[in-house]
Amino acid sequence: MKRGHWTLSPSHLVILSFAGVILAGTLLLLLPISSETGRLAWEDALFLATSAVCVTGLSPVDPGSTLSLFGQLILLVLIQVGGLGYMTISAFAAMLIRRRLSVTQRLSVGIMLGELVEAWRLLRYTITFTFACELAGTFLLFVAFGRYDLPFGERLWFAIFHSVSAFCNAGLDVFGLVGKERNWAGSLQPFAHDPFIVLTIASLLMLGGLGFPVIVEIADQVRRRRNRWSVHARVVLSANLVLWLGGTILIWLFESHNPTTIGDKTLPVQIMSAFFQSATARTAGFSTIPVGSLTAASLWLLCLLMFIGASPGGTGGGIKTTTATVLAAATWSSVRMKEQVVLFHRSVPPERLYKAVAFTLLAINTVGVSTLLLCVSEKNLLAQGIPHGPLSLFFETVSAFGTVGLSTGVTPLLSVWGKLILIAAMFVGRIGLLTLLVAIAGRKVEHVRYPHEEILVG
């Protein structure tokens, strides 16, 4: 698409679509009608809009007690648009009207959802599966909340909002001051003993984090339209299984003797809480235990899980499970002196390995620089002796970049500059570093080949 002498690439369109939705959401949240406690500060409105559109879950205010019903509705729309991506939704609408997609729209869908499935088919499955899961989640949560003393309207609203927030991996909640009497702040902590609610939310966020190309493949397998699983699907499913189970075991070992988290609970509740924390750490910001009370070992483990994140083409962030798997396979191949990187008896193309290495190094540098800037901007906060010290700031940064949303409780205490740093980290984490760099530098095909020469590594 051209505007004068400047060309808008698909990467530009993806970035501008997210930025435009964030700006619109910020302006709507700044309206007096959006708040119950007076007009939101501009930095809080911008932070909340970015967190919703980037499906992160970090928040400088409690949305349940701060936002009015109108404000919460705006938040819900931002989460839905952010989870699917504005370009995805607009491309689907264009397809319904014109029955075909432009080249730019197909490329934009590829950036947002992956390039392994034909664009129209992927769009159709994505929209259908998303709303089917959210509808099923709403029904299950509505039934589950029926065991609590809630008015019908509040019960329905909680079911709708948290079903969408869970599937889109946003992790934002609006429990706040329920009925203006009971304080249910603290995400899902009041429901930690309720397997119906906890496992429903966990199922939604896990499905949202698998990635839509894998969902399409699962549907094809169910309908017997495929004879074998692709390497991509095998990697995604096996990596998720290892991370879910491994994270559950380690969190339980680290926290089973911590009375401020799960140490004083029954064994089934301990295991369920550890499993939920392992699942939510890679995609969404819901929590059934106070994150700020976790041991340092658990916080470091959660940072690793948040950094890896969800799978490509889904609603989560991070460097993605496939990236981590390719790097692990490359390391193992290097140790065994193998020339090829092999996964499930198939070699990984060199360009995919280069992309995995580049993306991981860029992510490490982004998190590192953001944490450094936070340590500078929040030196007064550190001087006050916050729990876990600089580790808390590092945790918030990884949570923002991985678009997870777990927090040790530091985010509401940040200065304006600190909030702006996390806003930038959330935005970069959602659109993808490579997408941002391609938009800035452009994509030029290099035809020049240079001679080889040895260089010592390691």
Largest sheet: 2 strands, antiparallel
Q: Which regions have little confidence, pLDDT < 50, spanning 5+ residues?
A: 1-5, 177-185
Helix content: 55-70%
Give the number of helices.
Answer: 19
Strand order of the largest sheet: 1-2
Structural class: mainly alpha
β-strand number: 6
Order of helices and strands: EEHHHHHHHHEEHHHHHHEEHHHHH
Strand content: under 5%
Radius of gyration: 22 Å
What is the molecular shape? Answer: globular
Number of domains: 1
Average pLDDT figure: 83
Distance between the termini: 45 Å
Q: How would you describe the overall organization of this protein?
A:
With 458 residues, this protein is mainly α. It has one domain. Helix content is 62%, strand content 3%. The chain is built from 19 helices and six strands. The strands form three sheets. It has a two-stranded antiparallel ribbon. A hairpin with a 3-residue loop joins strand 3 and strand 4. Helix 8 runs parallel beside helix 9, helix 11 packs antiparallel against helix 13 and helix 15 runs antiparallel to helix 18. The N terminus is likely disordered.
Write the topology of this structure.
Blueprint (H helix, E strand, L loop, with lengths): L1 E2 L2 E2 L2 H20 L12 H12 L9 H4 L2 H16 L1 H13 L4 H11 L5 H27 L6 H16 L9 E2 L3 E2 L11 H16 L1 H11 L8 H25 L11 H14 L15 H13 L12 H15 L6 E2 L2 E2 L2 H28 L1 H5 L6 H12 L14 H16 L1 H9 L17
Antiparallel strand pairs: 1-2, 3-4, 5-6
Helix pairs in contact: 1-2, 1-4, 1-6, 1-19, 2-4, 2-18, 4-8, 5-7, 6-7, 7-8, 7-9, 7-10, 8-9, 9-12, 11-12, 11-13, 13-17, 14-15, 15-17, 15-18, 17-18
